[in-house]
Structures are given as structure tokens and as C-alpha cells.
Amino acid sequence: MLLTSIQWVISGRVDAMTMGSVDFEKLPEETQQQFIIIGETRSVPRHMLVVSPTLSKNKITRLKRLLLEMDKKESGKKILEQFEDTTKFAEIPDNHTDIFQEIRPFIKPISK
């Protein structure tokens, strides 16, 4: 879908599109130069790990350590690559937690 959208903008079939900065940076330089960036959103995590409040602190610590160290082993790198070309998991810096408060009203709760 992304490739089609890019082709449509370049060909003039559509006037605008959105894409993630990671995807944009993967484009060849000559393709990037064909676009005019008119706006950018704040950086937000692509994926987040959430756990049940009933999970023990020990298990949470082990799971967190496992994910944060996956990129250091070849087997972990292969798993990450299969997960939407992820290169590593990283902790969310404290100064980024306010973004979750901003987007919370737009998140639909999951019904039981």
C-alpha cells in the first residue's frame, strides 16, 4: 500500500499522503527529494508492551530484560526482523509519557 501511495503522489494521481518517518528514511534519496514535507507529528512508539496487573514483578522484570536485550543475539535479531522490521525494543523515556495522556481520549477501550 505504501509503495502505491508513493507512486500516486509522484505521478500526480493524488496530491498528498502520510507515511512514517522510518519508512520515509528507507526511500532512496532521489525519491525523498521528490516530496515536500508540510508537517510532522511528534515521535510516538510504534508498539508498546502492556502486561496484566496480576503479573508478578519478577516476571515483568524478566520479560522487560528479555525484550531489551533481544537485539544483542542473532536469534533475537531474526525474531525482531520478522516483527515489522523492528531492530530493537527500547524503554520509553520519561519525557515521552505525556504523549500517552494526549492520545488517551482517542483510544477505544476493549470490551470484555
Characteristics of this structure?
112 residues, mainly alpha, 2 domains, 6 helices, 42% helix
Description of the structure:
With 112 residues, this protein is mostly helical. The chain has two domains: 2-32, no CATH class; 57-106, no CATH class. It is 42% helix and 0% strand. The protein has helices spanning 2-11, 21-26, 29-32, 57-68, 74-82, 98-103. It is extended, with a radius of gyration of 18 Å. The two termini are 32 Å apart.
Count of distinct structural domains:
2
Helix content: 40-55%
Number of DSSP helices?
Answer: 6
Most strands sheet: none
**How many E strands?**
0
Distance between the termini: 32 Å
Spans of at least 5 consecutive residues whose pLDDT stays below 50 are none
Estimate what percentage of residues fall within beta strands: under 5%
Could you spell the SSE succession in H and E letters? Answer: HHHHHH
What integer value in Å does the Rg equal?
18 Å
Instruction: Tell me the overall shape.
Output: extended
Instruction: Return the average pLDDT rounded to an integer.
Output: 85
Structural class: mainly alpha
